[in-house]
Design brief:
This protein has about 300 residues and is mainly beta. The protein has one domain: Beta Barrel (Lipocalin). Helices cover about 10% and strands about 60% of the residues. The chain has one helix and 18 strands. The chain has a twelve-stranded antiparallel barrel with strand order 1-4-5-6-7-8-10-11-13-16-17-18. It has a two-stranded antiparallel sheet with strand order 2-3. The longest helix is centred in the first third of the chain and has 31 residues.
């Protein structure tokens, strides 16, 4: 009799799928929106610190308005045993505030703001948006030797949704301090080393942990003042900063699976701009960018108008 053919052993193949394919659209949106919420709060805070740099000395009172626009990209980040898709977002914000001199060295003020981010989750993951309404107070102290201290307390009411998730509302609280020293150099040049530390807390929901983050920044600002004809003053400047953001473990419970909200960590920012003034009027314009391993901002533009008396 002929021997019976033996069946060939089947190779043991472990399926290999792209990590992003393991996340459903709704899970990806939930994690990514939390990252976008924190980015929005940081963007609002950066605008206020820039504002304080303009008013530490000078007029008794100021009313100001600032418009900030930027395009940001966040890479795919690990979450659970998978990773998010990453996203691109366009951020627009408008801030209005006023301040006055309490003493010859101390200024106090307040502000309100509105921000909106339109988010494109990469590949087939859809889109979303985050909106923020902000109110805050600030104070700045500047000593005769050029040392200054800026403090900000800010509250934001955030709304986040996407085409895969329901609308959610959050409360965000931020405290920030910046210290530095302005050195007066020959030829109307100034150089200002500075350091900032900020804490942000965004509340959670039934299946979302709260999100608390610490952001630190060290940087240097170089500026020169020109006295022009007809009373104009012009101050071009350049600035460079190193920023890092870390937050405590924050998870989203998605259908029994814990998905962590990963931090986007370090980046380097650079900016060039100018402030100009005539009489009671001041205008300013800045162009900036940010480069990091996980987050990039190809461009950002800030414009400000200030009336002082």
């Amino acid at each position: 009799p002929q021997p019976q053919p033996q069946p060939q052993p089947q190779p043991n193949i472990t399926p290999s799928l792209p990590a992003t394919a393991q996340l459903l659209e709704s899970a990806n949106a939930q994690v990514s929106l939390r990252q976008a919420e924190l980015l929005m709060v940081e963007n609002e805070l950066n605008g206020i610190h820039q504002r304080l740099g303009e008013i530490r000395t000078g007029a008794k009172g100021n009313i100001w308005v600032r418009n900030v626009n930027s395009h940001q990209k966040l890479t795919a980040l690990s979450t659970g045993e998978s990773q998010t898709s990453g996203f691109k977002q366009n951020v627009h914000s408008l801030q209005i505030g006023a301040d006055a001199a309490a003493t010859d060295k101390v200024r106090l003020g307040g502000f309100v703001g509105h921000s909106q981010a339109t988010i494109d989750f990469n590949n087939h993951y859809g889109n979303g948006k985050v909106k923020g309404q902000t109110i805050g107070v600030y104070g700045t102290y500047m000593a005769d030797n050029g040392v200054y201290l800026d403090n900000i307390a800010q509250y934001s009411r955030l709304t986040a949704d996407s085409n895969h998730t329901e609308k959610q509302r959050y409360n965000a609280y931020t405290l920030s301090s910046e210290i530095g020293k302005q050195f007066q150099l020959a030829g109307a040049w100034t150089v200002t080393p500075q350091a900032q530390l900020a804490w942000t807390h965004i509340n959670g929901k039934e299946k979302e942990d709260s999100l608390s983050a610490i952001s630190s920044r060290v940087g240097l600002r170089l500026a020169k003042t020109f006295e022009l004809k007809q009373g104009w003053k012009l101050q071009p400047y350049a600035e460079a900063n190193a920023i890092t953001t870390r937050h405590h473990q924050s998870d989203i419970n998605y259908r029994g699976t814990q998905l962590n909200v990963e931090s986007y960590r370090d980046r380097f920012t650079s900016a060039i701009g100018f402030n100009a003034g005539l009489g009671n009027h001041r205008i300013g314009l800045e162009v900036n960018r940010a480069d990091g391993k996980h987050i990039k901002q190809p461009f950002g533009v800030q414009a400000v108008y200030r009336f002082q008396w």
